[in-house]
Amino acid sequence: MSMLMMGLKGIGAVLLFVLLCPILYTVRLNDRKLAVTVRLFLCVPLRREFDFSGESEEAQEEMAPPPEVEKSKMDDVVTESSPSPEETVENPSAETEIMEEMKPDVSEDMPPDGDNGPSVWQQIEFAWTHGFMRRTFQDVKRILAHSWPGYFYITGRFGTGDPMQTGIIAGVADAVMYRETRYIEYDFTEKVNTLEGRCGGFINPLVILWIAVRWMMCGETRAFWHFREGINHG
What we know:
- The protein is of the alpha+beta class.
- It has a domain at about 25-80.
- It has helices spanning about 1-20, 55-65, 65-80, 85-90, 95-100, 120-130, 130-145, 165-175, 180, 205-215, 220-230, and strands spanning about 25-30, 35-40, 45-50, 150-160, 185, 190-195, 195-205.
- Helix 1 (about 1-20) packs across helix 10 (about 205-215) and helix 7 (about 130-145) packs antiparallel against helix 10 (about 205-215).
- The longest helix has 19 residues, at about 1-20.
- It is extended.
């Protein structure tokens, strides 16, 4: 019994450590790619990049076979799979059987009689009038407020080639977003754009779990699911 209790305490300690350990994230965006880095347990990095330059698409187009080859392959497949005219004449029901097989089976998707439940619009109306949507938006707002980036700034060089236009942009940026744009180096002689935006923050899994559990156990959520099941239509 003592070994079981020690095992349960160990599992609980591990779960508590996982839930209390924050998840750090950083996002870097420029005109060519978006890079997202997530650090688990403060030391395990997970990185994902999304390339906007189009180089990967060009590589895929080079590796793809010519359209003539694909068309010839499809013609061969259709010729092999389709029955010959002689077979159709000898067996008139062959074409009918093929058409029957191609028809979608909608009997499985149809709900049984007496178990249709409320429609989508009825569910939306119930969620709106009984506070389910308002409670959901409030909890989503809490999650966004908790996981909102703690910092954001833009670095790099920027210039439009026109000194007057570059000066206007620099003045507006300093007036509206000075803290975020103070690291930008403006070029008043050349047209250049090497800007890169960076932001980052952290997410506490325990806070997210607490908000999700409260949302699932609140009266608005339970009333909505009961309404969907046909238990409470009031």
